[in-house]
Automatic annotation (TrEMBL):
Residue ranges annotated for the DUF1846 domain, each copy included: 3-334, 340-491
Protein name: DUF1846 domain-containing protein
InterPro entries reported for this sequence: DUF1846, DUF1846_C, DUF1846_N
UniProt-listed Pfam families: DUF1846 (PF08903), DUF1846_C (PF20921)
Domain of life per record: Bacteria
Amino acid sequence: MKIGFDNEKYLKMQSEHIRQRIEAFGDKLYLEFGGKLFDDYHASRVLPGFAPDSKLRMLLQLADQSEIIIAISAADIEKNKVRQDLGITYDVDVLRLIQSFQDKGLYVGSVVITQYSGQASADQFKSKLEHMGIRVYRHYSIEGYPSNVSLIVSDEGYGKNDYIETTRPLVIVTAPGPGSGKMATCLSQLYHENKRGIKAGYAKFETFPIWNLPLKHPVNLAYEAATADLNDVNMIDPFHLEAYGKTAVNYNRDVDIFPVLNAIFEGIYGESPYKSPTDMGVNMAGMCIVDDEVCQEASCQEIIRRYYQSLNRLAREEGASDEVYKIELLMKQAKITPEMRPVVTPCLERAKKLSAPAAAMELSDGAIVTGKTSNLLGASAAVLLNAIKVLGDIPHDQHLIAPSAIEPIQTLKTCYLGGHNPRLHTDEVLIALSMSAATDPVAKKALDQLPKLRGCQVHTSVMLSDVDIKVFQKLGVELTSEPVYEHKKLYH
């Protein structure tokens, strides 16, 4: 993989910049943490060289100074909101985050339930957390938020919220997803800290958009593609331009809310510490790009992948056509087409030639391997086996799994477990391969190639089952699919 980003430089610069921001405010800094604290695979895809755990590693350098507050909206608890990337509800994700942070050696001080208005499910969740020994606070819905500044900055606004007890100078406020109330939590704490005579500040840490890259830079366009369902739009920060005469990129939500934030800061402190929403940020990622061309190319590929994801969501009736249209516009701005994804054309040509589902995989050296649906295997399973044969220099016509070993599995699926599809999914193929590897050295050699698939690209001519999608994710393979079901059914 070509490297476009200096990760070690980033870790050093970012942690130092946060330390400087803490010192600038004196006693305490509330840091709103946008995006994923760990497993930030979007950043690693568009900034090759960025480690998925970079933000976590950076925070570990500040572990002795920091504690974490996790915010979750009572409304999201009530409606069982789901994280699309993990397939779990926000309340379950809070437990996952707490465990993950603790396992890494970071201190989780508390959980705050925001936008609380008496929801029974929120009360139950609070009791559950407290039973586990986790401190829980409640922040209430404020009428007229965020416009009614005089009410917000009063004892009947932020003053009604629970004061969250914190003990360390850096307080990181994170959440399972957007709209959880991270910023409101920070501002509420500033109000309470100020009343107690504690000098506290606020800053925002979001990797994207990167403020010192051009507005239409592919890295920033890729962020818009990733948030197409949220309607986020990158824009020039007009407040920064007016204050400093310099161009900086931000996004619509931060720009729109800044006048209100300014008024809230003035209500708390008497004056605002910031002249623009860009001023609030502490992101140093743009300073650590070492090969812009590599990052541009990687970002263009990410936009295409996001395009296919939006098409798939629309086909499954999980997304909206506006999401697709927005990404199509972004592709025009970046001057890219789906065919620029190297695996798309070989996959579609193979499918057309065979009149059957097919798949294509691009290996790390650029070689393209294809696979087709057969009586025994689905296209995704076939391309997986063909790929590890190439990587292991194993003849194409050599069986890694004997047909006699596959047939009993098919019988189990269809006759005993009530399945309708006799072909093996990728997880079933890998289990069968691992069993063969116990006695067959060639199968063992093939199995040993699996780590080499990380970062490889796959395209399929039909949408895959959740099982196959998850296996590719676990292998680190980047998957796209045509927005087509293999079979026309009312229920899939």
